[in-house]
Design brief:
Shape: globular
Structural class: mainly beta
Helix content: under 10%
Distance between the termini: 41 Å
Strand content: over 45%
Number of strands: 20
Largest sheet: 7 strands, parallel
Strand order of the largest sheet: 1-4-7-10-13-16-19
Radius of gyration: 15 Å
Order of helices and strands: EEEEEEEEEEEEEEEEEEEE
Length: 193
């Protein structure tokens, strides 16, 4: 299965006592599933008294290719808030993520909050190419790219920036859970604002 966006997608979920989940693109596409964005995709989730979770692109598949704008914003007044610019997984099959555009993720408020520019997971291995901008803000936790599940390779010639609260926050530009090859000719930063 394939999703290609050349226009504008806005997904909003707002609640009071309910879990609020917003997904700009949600594709469970099998090992060959692909999501491509040339336009603008924005997901906004907000909840007063429950969790808020936002995904710009949520994919089970083999390829995410973004040359446009991807945004995810999550806010909860009292509970968990999570924002993912891209969340992609492919089980035991290879996964590739390409970004030549802009990916932004913001998680604020709530009792616990975290924002991820890209979270990619594959036991068979993940390749990430970034020549664009990945900009992440999480009051407590901000991660530019999180690569998990298997061996990974990251080629960065763009900007990966994570920002968090200096008192109790953690900001990480690149985080891997398995052996990784990282080639950087751009800028990677994890900083407190």
């Amino acid at each position: 299965s394939t999703v290609t966006n050349r226009g504008t997608i806005l997904a909003e979920a707002r609640g009071t006592d309910e879990l609020s989940t917003a997904r700009g693109v949600y594709l469970w596409g099998g090992p060959g599933g692909q999501a491509t964005n040339f336009g603008a995709i924005q997901a906004i989730a907000a909840s007063a008294d429950n969790q808020a979770i936002a995904y710009g692109i949520c994919l089970q598949g083999g390829l995410v290719d973004n040359s446009g704008l991807l945004g995810a914003e999550a806010r909860s007044e009292t509970d968990l808030s999570l924002a993912f610019g891209v969340w992609a997984a492919n089980g035991g099959s290879p996964l590739e993520v390409r970004n030549s555009g802009r990916i932004a993720a913001l998680a604020d408020s709530g009792s616990v909050n975290a924002a991820y520019g890209i979270w990619a997971d594959s036991r068979a291995g993940t390749i990430l190419h970034n020549s664009g901008v990945i900009d992440v803000f999480g009051h407590e936790m901000a991660v530019g790219t999180l690569l998990t599940g298997g061996p990974t390779r990251l080629d960065n010639s763009g900007l990966i920036r994570a920002q968090a609260n200096p008192v109790d926050g953690n900001a990480i530009g690149i985080l891997t859970s398995e052996p990784a090859v990282i080639l950087n000719s751009g800028t990677v930063s994890g900083l407190s604002y």
